[in-house]
Amino acid sequence: MNIPGRHAAPRSLPRLTRSPTCRLGPLATLLSVLTAGALTSACATTHGVRRLADGTEVHTFRREWTNAHLVVHGDSAFLVDAGFEREAPGLAEAIAAEGLDPARIRAIVLTHGHADHAGGAGWFQRRYGTPVIVGRGDEGMTASGRNEPLCPTDDTARDRLASDQGATYAPLAPTTIVEDALSLAALTGIDAEVVRLPGHTEGSLVVVVSNAALVGDLFRGNVFDAGTSVHFYMCDLEDNRRDVAHLLGELAPAAVTFFPGHFGPLERSSVEDAFARLREETSSVRP
């Protein structure tokens, strides 16, 4: 995939997993040194690459602590989530800086309609005509550009609820609405499947490709380590645990890497261990 206007032959994509590059402010840099680099996982802006079993590469661009994942195989690419609307131009520049032409992204799959994931999709749609895929149930949010009510799961989320709830973006019209499942092969040229998994929102989607799954806000990575946690906002925790079990056991039984919407990526053992602990904790408090 060439960047428009370049006359040199396109460079090949990196073939090995690359550690995330990170931009930190002065205080965060000091803290990172003091914590032996552990703060890198908490970077607001990073880029990293993972190579999957079939040669597909997942480029993760983190902007304002929200991940946008560019899935690339050969000359084909699609984007999973697009971050905040205000970050879209910078995301396009970051993609181009990796030798990938944002105009040739074949589709954007929105894991859900919240502003920190869906906001940038309209910018790509207006600028490049990129098709946008949304799950049935979230088209109301994309039509209004407003988040539906959020349910905080911890004190961090409660402290920032007003800001997160009030985030908005320019309304957009989905090109495709997923009722149940959708193969991406014909549209994107990549052997991947989108599956609707209501929970975090009614139209939440996961994407299964090769030996990985891109899960949006089904769960999140931890800030300072490689662990897995319940997302900051989840209205039905029991349903969330059932959805994770369904993902691990039925939707993506061969997946070994999970790409969440925040932090990560996560190894399968991390996800399994985290939700096993949650089941034990829940069982121990029941009468």
Quick check: average pLDDT? 87
CATH superfamily: Ribonuclease Z/Hydroxyacylglutathione hydrolase-like
What is the global morphology? globular
Count every beta strand, where a strand is a DSSP E run of 2 or more residues: 16
Question: What is the CA-CA span between the terminal residues?
Answer: 59 Å
Number of helices: 9
- Gyration radius over CA: 18 Å
Beta-strand share of residues: 15-25%
- For the report, how would you describe the main beta sheet? 8 strands, mixed
Name the poorly predicted regions.
1-19, 24-40
Tell me the CATH topology: Metallo-beta-lactamase, Chain A
> What is the C-level CATH assignment?
Alpha Beta
Going by CATH, the architecture would be 4-Layer Sandwich
Domains, number: 1
Q: What is the helix fraction of residues, given as a range? A: 25-40%
- Helix-strand pattern, N to C? EHEEEEHEHHEHHEEHEEEEEHEEH
Strand order of the largest sheet: 1-2-3-4-5-6-7-8
At a glance:
With 287 residues, the chain is α+β, with helices and mostly antiparallel strands. It contains 9 helices and 16 strands. The chain has one domain: 4-Layer Sandwich (Metallo-beta-lactamase, Chain A).
Molecular structure report:
It is globular, with a radius of gyration of 18 Å. The protein starts with 17 loop residues before the first strand and ends with a helix. With 287 residues, it is an alpha+beta fold. It contains nine helices and 16 strands. Helix 8 packs antiparallel against helix 9 (268-285). The chain has a single domain, classed as Ribonuclease Z/Hydroxyacylglutathione hydrolase-like (Metallo-beta-lactamase, Chain A). The chain has helices at residues 26-34, 88-97, 115-118, 121-128, 139-144, 155-165, 185-188, 237-251, 268-285, and strands at residues 18-23, 45-51, 57-63, 66-73, 76-80, 108-109, 132-135, 176-178, 181-183, 192-196, 205-209, 212-216, 220-221, 228-229, 257-260, 266-267.
